[in-house]
Write the structure tokens for this entry.
Amino acid sequence: MSLKLGFRRLVGLVCVLTVAASAADEGLVAAVRAADDERVAATIAGDHARLAAVYSDDLRYVHSNGKIDNKAEHADGLAKRASVYERFAYQTREFRLAAPGVMLMSGRVVIHSTNAKGKNQNDVNVLAVWRQEQGRWKLLAWQAAKNLPPGPVNR
């Protein structure tokens, strides 16, 4: 076998494996996107059982104001409905496989809610870590940072 023919076969094999890996990654992304969609729906519903099912027992949830919750604190707080979440309007939502069974989700979302002070819109950047646990994708970590409104342009 000539070196050229061997190289061409190797390139072809790499292409086939890359397409197969991309298809597998797309399936994982679809599964994590569905898990995040379920998290959003459970949050809007204030459904403690659904939230508990989608959260890892090791959850660390960092709010945009710096408050940190574990799984029980966060699910209990949402179920009490002190803040009622109405809509999560993702501006961007990207997924990146970090390691087998670990997916990073980053993006920007405008979160519409109501509390005792009235209606709120929080425009935040988020980083979420999803981990596959016993065959299900669970939210392991969430960190949000508020985007500041545009300020005056200094020239």
Observations:
- Residues 3-146 form a domain with the Nuclear Transport Factor 2; Chain: A, fold (CATH 3.10.450.50).
- The radius of gyration is 20 Å.
- The chain has three helices and six strands.
